[in-house]
Design a protein that fits this description.
Elements lengths: L12 E3 L1 H8 L4 E4 L3 H6 L6 E2 L3 E4 L2 E4 L3 H6 L7 E5 L4 H12 L4 E5 L2 H7 L8 H4 L10
Parallel strand pairs: 1-7, 2-3, 2-6, 6-7
Antiparallel strand pairs: 4-5
C-alpha cells in the first residue's frame, strides 16, 4: 500500500495574474476564497466565492464548511485558480484542497489585489475595487 504524503504550502503551484488570466480563458474556474464582504466589493467575472476564513470578534477563523462547500460546486478533477486578497489564504486553501484530493489547483500569486493592479478589473480606481492589505505593499 502506497503511503500518501500530506501536502504543504511548498506543494502549491503559484501562477502570476497574467498566467491566471490566460488559464481562465481556456476553461479553468476561479475560486475566490475571500470573505463575502471582500467579494461584494469587486471580483473576477464568473468567480465562485467560498470564503476560506471568516472575520470574527476573535479574529479570522477557518470556515469549517469550506471543503464541503467547494465539493458542492467543483469536481476534484476540475482545474481551479484559487485566490484571496493577497495570496496567503489562497495558498492555505490550496493545501486543504490538495489534501482533499483536488488534482489541479493553483494559487494566484498576489491575489485579487495583483489582478486589480494589473488593470484586469476595469476602470475604477483601485481603492474602489480592493481591500487594503497590511501584508502587501501598497501600490
Amino acid at each position: 500500500m502506497e503511503e500518501t504524503k500530506t501536502k504543504t504550502v511548498e506543494n502549491v503551484e503559484t501562477v502570476d495574474v497574467y498566467t491566471a488570466k490566460g488559464l481562465l480563458s481556456t476553461g479553468h474556474r476561479y475560486l475566490d476564497v475571500r470573505t463575502n464582504e471582500e467579494f461584494a466589493k469587486s471580483h473576477v467575472e464568473e468567480a465562485l466565492n467560498i470564503p476560506y476564513m471568516f472575520k470574527t470578534d476573535e479574529g479570522r477563523v477557518i470556515n469549517p464548511d469550506f471543503l464541503p462547500q467547494v465539493a458542492s460546486v467543483c469536481k476534484k478533477d476540475e482545474h481551479l485558480i484559487v485566490a484571496c486578497n493577497a495570496g496567503g489564504r489562497g495558498s492555505r486553501a490550496c493545501v486543504d484542497l490538495l489534501n482533499a484530493g483536488y488534482e489541479h489547483v493553483a494559487n494566484m500569486g498576489g491575489g485579487y489585489s495583483a489582478w486589480v493592479d494589473a488593470g484586469f478589473a476595469g476602470d475604477k480606481p483601485p481603492e474602489d475595487l480592493k481591500i487594503a492589505c497590511k501584508f502587501r505593499p501598497q501600490g
